[in-house]
Amino acid sequence: MGWVPTRRSRASTSPADSEQTLLELQDLASSAGARVVGKVLQRSYEPDPATLVGRGKAEEIRAAAHAVKADLVVFDHDLTPSQLRNLENMLGLKVIDRTQLILDIFASRARSREGQLQVELAQLNYLLPRLSGRGTLLSRLGGGIGTRGPGEQQLEYDRRRIRRRIRTLREAIEHVRSQRALHRAHRRARQYLTVALVGYTNAGKSTLFNALTSAQVTTSPRLFATLDPTVRALPLESRRPVLLSDTVGFIRKLPTHLVAAFRATLEELEDAGLLLQVTDASHPEHEQQDAAVEGLLETLGVATTPRLHVWNKIDLLEATDLKRLPQGPRDAAVSAKTGDGLRQLLQRIDEQLGDDPLVEAEFEFSPADGQRLALLYRGATVLARRYEDDRVVVRARLRESLRSRLQLVPLRAVHATT
């Protein structure tokens, strides 16, 4: 069970926005396995330094929580170590904040070794400044919401050992980054173009990924159902080699250290030639969600990457709402669930990736050109080959981008019929 209070400033947030944020926190708690039995919305201009919500409101929360026999209180605001300690003492219940709740969800969803490393690093960075005076917290770790991840043994170590573990994790993640860099270099060498799905959590990215690639990535209405990245071939009419990457969903107020920990995974976005920004067009807060996605893309340094906006879940819209969706060349309205609009989306992707026509070209290679000759064989269709003295002359059909990348002047090049 959980009791979910939140605090928002009157100066910056409307009542409707506060309610939506509270509903999102409720969804997060449910995704973590809690049963929400009550919620409180606290409005104040400044947070109370001791308890965030003030002593009077804390007493109100305590009475209400005990009345419904709640055993957990979740705050939609990052709590300082002293606030966390004071609130637990006043409420007589376990208290966690939004960041710890998100970390808990990530810990329960990470399946790959890479994902587990990244989540553990984020958890330890979160817990390190909260070790002082948290003996009761450490003794409770090991099961339930807000306790998944590194485990009781790691968290009972002193700061020195935790810092040592953080260094080890960072080294392991750096190794992951280097491996991913090699994979991306291999894709570039084989002339693969990369398209990446981005968007708010639960916008339908994984469902769209499956619909476009015939993959079987796990889908769920729960928040953060996808944590580990997946890459599959994307079939286009142009037949150019394109890979589609599914990434972790974004959310408002995503902890900065969590973004930093997952940078190795999110670096996939840096290599993408096109981003598909997926929006749940049926969600009443989709504009605010898109703003949060935009902010995170700027943080990651990929806000200038060419983008195609995919308005998903149109099967849930009324006809009048559907007509209001943008209709520009960089917009596509689809339903990943029913398949509506997917053919047009694939055409838009082809268009946005740019013109890369097939050409027939003839190349001369010397014995020292083995690497470029191998690149030609991997990315082109070889039509003919002959030997002249110490050279080999190869005629092939290939993409213009590959012909340019070979950095050789062909003896002859003409556009081919496709």
What does this protein structure show overall?
- The protein has helices spanning 15-31, 55-67, 81-91, 98-109, 113-127, 135-140, 152-155, 159-189, 205-213, 256-261, 263-266, 286-299, 319-323, 342-352, 370-379, 400-405, and strands at 2-8, 36-43, 72-75, 94-97, 193-199, 230-233, 242-246, 274-280, 307-312, 331-333, 358-365, 381-388, 391-399, 412-415.
- Helix 4 packs antiparallel against helix 5 (113-127).
- The chain folds into 4 domains: 2-103, 3-Layer(aba) Sandwich (Rossmann fold); 110-172, no CATH class; 191-352, Rossmann fold, CATH 3.40.50; 358-415, Alpha-Beta Plaits.
- It has 418 residues and is an alpha/beta fold.
- The N and C termini lie far apart (62 Å).
- 42% of the residues lie in helices and 20% in strands.
- The model is unreliable at 8-12, 133-143, 151-155 and 408-418 (pLDDT under 50).
- The strands form 4 sheets. Strands 6-7-5-8-9-10 form a 6-stranded mixed β-sheet, sandwiched between helices. It has a 4-stranded antiparallel β-sheet with strand order 12-13-11-14. A two-stranded parallel sheet has the order 1-2.
- Helix 1 (15-31) links the parallel strand 1 (2-8) and strand 2.
- It is elongated, with a radius of gyration of 26 Å.
DSSP E strands, number: 14
Shape: elongated
Backbone structural class: alpha/beta
- Strands ordered across the widest β-sheet: 6-7-5-8-9-10
Uncertain spans, ≥5 residues at pLDDT below 50? 8-12, 133-143, 151-155, 408-418
The CATH class name of the largest domain reads Alpha Beta
- Judging by the overall fold, what is the CATH architecture of the largest domain? 3-Layer(aba) Sandwich
Terminal Cα separation, in Å? Answer: 62 Å
Number of helices: 16
